């Protein structure tokens, strides 16, 4: 294995964090080292490579074109380093200590309780505090170690690991469909019908359906909205409108009995990715890795149950 690298590998990782934060001070705080050390490592890296990586002035920090390419390689190196460190830590000690977790209400009490119970059984030296939340929380600012969330990650000091994707489908009750003057055959028709929507946080969700290469963004009239699928399911069962539900798990029995039926089956509703988010500083925590594995295991069990 080649060992005569022309630069300090640690300095490359420091450079990567500076690029993500766009700030020497923020990167220094995140890495737990003085700003002067970060600056010195960057200068040494530029000297070793013989190129300019960053442009700095009093107002902003920008990355050179070559610096962007080097950063891309640095991201891959960091991922490999994290993997090696995690393997070592997993072998070294059993997960222990307290973990504070925030899970959105829409994910469900059943899922949260099953993940929590399995985690506690697996790791007897662990303690767990799960809070079901109905608003967007930050793992650092709001005092959590781990939060579950959706959408793009806005904070470069955080790490997001995908846990599962909610595969959704449009559905309604037979009674609701029977009362319509014409059958639903096109997505545009939904814009004139009452819609049962689920949501997390205050921002409105975009609903997009796809068929082959065609895509259509829906703009339905939301008659009712809830941050829990069980509540939305009851609205749909009562014939109050068309809604979007996760495939199988929430409505398995209703689909079997025919009390809820799919709508526009040749169109696919865009799924919802759910991530486990935690601070970069906790990347090597065996407790967090263990909880992530348990969360994924429960999803696999749910799929088998369906």
TrEMBL record:
<dbReference type="InterPro" id="IPR058163">
    <property type="entry name" value="LysR-type_TF_proteobact-type"/>
</dbReference>
<dbReference type="Pfam" id="PF03466">
    <property type="entry name" value="LysR_substrate"/>
</dbReference>
<dbReference type="InterPro" id="IPR005119">
    <property type="entry name" value="LysR_subst-bd"/>
</dbReference>
<dbReference type="InterPro" id="IPR036388">
    <property type="entry name" value="WH-like_DNA-bd_sf"/>
</dbReference>
<dbReference type="GO" id="GO:0006351">
    <property type="term" value="P:DNA-templated transcription"/>
</dbReference>
<dbReference type="GO" id="GO:0043565">
    <property type="term" value="F:sequence-specific DNA binding"/>
</dbReference>
<dbReference type="InterPro" id="IPR000847">
    <property type="entry name" value="LysR_HTH_N"/>
</dbReference>
<dbReference type="InterPro" id="IPR036390">
    <property type="entry name" value="WH_DNA-bd_sf"/>
</dbReference>
<keyword id="KW-0804">Transcription</keyword>
<keyword id="KW-0805">Transcription regulation</keyword>
<dbReference type="GO" id="GO:0003700">
    <property type="term" value="F:DNA-binding transcription factor activity"/>
</dbReference>
<protein>
    <submittedName>
        <fullName>LysR family transcriptional regulator</fullName>
    </submittedName>
</protein>
<dbReference type="Pfam" id="PF00126">
    <property type="entry name" value="HTH_1"/>
</dbReference>
<feature type="domain" description="HTH lysR-type">
    <location>
        <begin position="7"/>
        <end position="64"/>
    </location>
</feature>
<comment type="similarity">
    <text>Belongs to the LysR transcriptional regulatory family.</text>
</comment>
<keyword id="KW-0238">DNA-binding</keyword>
